[in-house]
Amino acid sequence: MMKNVSHVRDNIPHDKRIGVCVSGGWDSAVLWYIVYNECKKRGQSCRPYTVPKIDGAVNYANKILKWSGYDSETNIVGRVDAEDPSEYVTSGIIDIFAKGYADIVYVAVTKYYDGMEPDHERQHASQYNAEDICIQPFHNLTKDQTVKMAFDLGIAEEIMDITHSCTERDEGRCGYCPWCKEREWAFKQIGEVDAGTN
Description:
This protein is α/β, with parallel strands linked by helices.
């Protein structure tokens, strides 16, 4: 799994302003940790952006940023008035580029596991021919792989309770939405216990 971490870290462009979409969820926390720490080491600009979804995204994003040592809160972008929830993050990415906030944006999109029944499709940069500026390094990974990655990085225990997967509640877990089930599935796949409550 550390090969996946190296792949992300080693491919961050040196001469660009980097943005990372931080949703408050597990995958974006792992991605933020990798990208932010590499940029910090280089002295390179790296800023977080969050679409203000009703699931408490801004609250959890700010918890992740504080945990990571980032000295400010997230930057709000995008809209949440679309009928299709998959368009929320897309609107944030469009906002980031339209306002000139970053040259490259990282997004922690993962693929669905076999048998998952999502309420919407995840959007991939390849749908828009935007892979050069919207980088989704986890797009071929399922959540069990990003959970394992966090354990390999030594951050899993720290992010369990500050990340939030449920889209039905802004605190705790409903236990039945596809995102709660995905997180539960991921921990079971790698034989670990999720001690988080969000």
